[in-house]
Structure formats: structure tokens, C-alpha cells
Structures
1.
Amino acid sequence: QVQLVESGGGSVQAGGSLRLSCAAAGHILSINAMAWYRQALGKQRELVATITPSGTTNYGESAKGRFTISRDNAKKSVFLQMNSLKPEDTGLYYCNARMKMSLIDGWSDFWGQGTQVTVSS
């Protein structure tokens, strides 16, 4: 069973930090790009950051300068280090990964269950 398992969410005060983790589990042949998205209550889901297998990153405007995405290919994991957190960072964070289960399969997108991040003033 292929799935993405997230952890690391929680409640912090403004200016604090959190590190989110997401690990892919199951029979997986390869993983392409991985990413983090978030969705605040009553708002649309937005891209936070992406990272390619070679380590090339891309950040949404709100994350630049404060968040860092990284990955460990051997552990099939992606991380999001969040510093200088603001109340507007509050939301449900989802990890995403494009994966292939076998040589006869194409690429498919998978999503984590979501982990809540709450930042208070």
C-alpha cells in the first residue's frame, strides 16, 4: 500500500519554528518531484514549496526567506523547515509526491493526510 505519512505539525507562537516531515511508504519504484501545499480555513490550497530529485527548489512568495524544503532520497522523505512563523501561516499542510510503482506504471500524484499548523500572535 503506497501512502505518504506526515508529522511535525503543532501549535506555536509567532516567531517560532516547526519542522514538518513526510515519508513515503509501500512498494515504490521511484519518486519524482515532492512538494508541500497548505490550505487555510476558508481559502484555496496554495503551493508552499517544491523540490526535484536533484535538489532544485521552488518556493511560493509567502515562504521565501523563511521556509526551507529538503529531501532524503534514501529515506523517501521530504521535509519543510519553517522559521519566523506568522499567524497567516496557520493552516493544514499537505505533502505531495509524484511516484511510480513499477516499470509498467506511469507517474501518479499522492497526497499526505495533512498536518495542522497553528501560529498564535
2.
Amino acid sequence: QVQLVESGGGLVQAGGSLRLSCAVSGLTFNAYVMGWFRQGPGNEREFVACISRRAGNTAYADSVKGRFTISRDNAKNTVYLQMNNLKPGDTAVYYCAAQSSTVADSTPRSNYNYWGQGIQVTVSS
């Protein structure tokens, strides 16, 4: 049974930082591209960041570039999202996801095979 379990969310003031973790089990972790998505109130789920299987390549949404950093530890089957200089607009439920395909573009959510249950991040002004 595949499980992706997010942790590290919560309430933070604008300008603060949070680190999300996603622990993965039930699949060969280093065979999957890992991504983070988010869904704010009234919005569709949107791409935030992704990281290649061996962590050699990353990609970010323009809205988080320079503030968020995605990383992974294949020995621990865990992917992380370090979020700095948080803004109220970052308030959303954050999801980690796993993609098995080798497509060049890992931003569409339709490319991902498995999803976590999501975790709330709230940034107050």
C-alpha cells in the first residue's frame, strides 16, 4: 500500500518559515519524481515545486521561486519543502505527490500517480 504522509504545516506570521516533510512508503522512492502542490481557498490545485529522482534537477512555480526549496533524502524516503519569507498568499493545503513517468514536464498534476492527504499552511499578515 502506497502512503505519502505530509507533516510540518501550521500557522505562521508573514515573513516566517516552515519546513514541510513528506514520508513515503510502499513504492521504490528513488524511481519517482516528487512534487509539491497547493490548493488555496477557492482555487484549483497548483504546482509549487518538483525534484528529479536523484535530486539533480528542480523546478519551481514563479510565485515561490527564491523563497521555497525542495529537496529529498532517498535514504529516508522523504521529500521536503523549505518555505521562507512566507506571505499570506501562500496560505493553502499543501500536497506532496509522486510521479513515475519520465515526461520532461513535471508541472501538470495529471502526471502524478500518488498523492498525500494534504496539510494546512496558514500565513497571517
3.
Amino acid sequence: QVQLVESGGGLVQAGGSLRLSCAASGRTVSSVAMGWFRQAPGKEREFVAAINRSGGSTNYADSVKGRFTISRDNAKDTVYLQMNSLKPEDTAVYYCAARRAEIATMTRGAYDYWGQGTQVTVSS
């Protein structure tokens, strides 16, 4: 069983930056592909970014490409999402997800484990 805990959310002004962290229990991060999703009130959960098991391949939603960067440190059992040039449209609860596979995917249903979420609010 993989347990995920997100942290790093908060309130920032437009144009600011935040770095989200996702800590996994045990030595599990190296065994799973990881993804970040977000969900705003009244909207469906949407894909943000993903990274494969080894960290050698990444994918991003068009809405965040060039602004967000996903990375992982398997030695620390942690995955990160660096968010720069934040916009009010980025406001949402951000969820970390893990998939027991080599290749990451943007499909929500393909992930096996989810964190509790962390709130990101971007003011104008």
C-alpha cells in the first residue's frame, strides 16, 4: 500500500510561485509513476503533470506547460511540482497520485493511490 501526503499549498498573488511536495511512505516512490491533478469547485478533476517511474520522461497539460515543472527525488521518496507565474485560473485543490507502472499517464482512472490534496489559491 502506498500512502501519499501533499504539502506546500497556500495563498499567493498572481505571478508568484509555489512548490508542492508529495511524500510517499516507505521506499515506494521509486516503484511507481507519479502524477499531479487539480480540481476546482464545480469542475472535474483535471490532469496537470506526470513523471514516469525512473524520472526520465515527463508530460504536462497545455495550460501549465512552460510554467510548471514536475520532478522526483527517489532517495527522499518525494515528488515535486514547481509552479511559477501562477494565475488565478490555477486556483484548485492539487492532488498527488501514484500508479504502479513504469509509464505515467494523464488518465485519472489509471492511478491506484491518491493523496488528500493541498489547496492552492492565487489572487489577482
4.
Amino acid sequence: QVQLAESGGGSVQTGGSLRLSCAATDGRYLSGCMGWFRQTPGKEREGVALILIGAGTTYYDDSVKGRFTISQDNVKNMVYLEMNALESEDAAMYYCAANSQCTTINGNPSPFETYRYRGWGKGTLVTIPS
């Protein structure tokens, strides 16, 4: 199983932008579906965005749709999350994980099957000071 590491978090004012990066730390190639998730203290980890490696199919949670963009760079073997128009509700620890068995992304039902994702990094923190 691929082991991942997130980076790029920081403190951004409301309305600002930030790009998060996810990379494999064990030299394995990314495959299947890659997902960005986020979690705040005392709450469940929630899905943010997914991308099907290779095909590039994406899916977004309604809370970030239109503001966040997940992308892949197969040459660099990385996945990114471009966050725009950040809101206070976006503040969280952001995690990257992989679902190697994922071959398609279908929003009906929700594809954010967190339990299927593996290789979680330690997270990168995004704060939105007010």
C-alpha cells in the first residue's frame, strides 16, 4: 500500500487561496482513486475531493464544489488540491489517501468511502483566521 504525505497547508485569510500537495513517500506510483479529506477536532473525517488516477475523473463534496480543484500530475506522481475562495468552514486538517481498488467515480451514491482509503498521511493544517 502506498504511503502518502501532505504538504502546503498554512494560514489564509477568508477568500484566499492555497494549494495542497500529496506525494507518495515510498516510491510507489499513485493509482486507483486519490482523495482529499479533512477533519476538525471532535468531528468525523469528511471527504473533500476525489480523482481517478489516469482518467482524471473528479468528484467534489458540495461544500467545496466550484471552489476547490483536485488534479494529478502523473509525471511527478503527485496529486494537488487547489483551494480558492476559502471560508472559515474550510479550516481543518487535510489528509490525502488512496483507494487502490477504485476504478470508477460515481456520485450516486457518494463515493467518499473513507474506510476504503489507505496510506493516510499525517495531514497538513489549514487555518482561516478571522
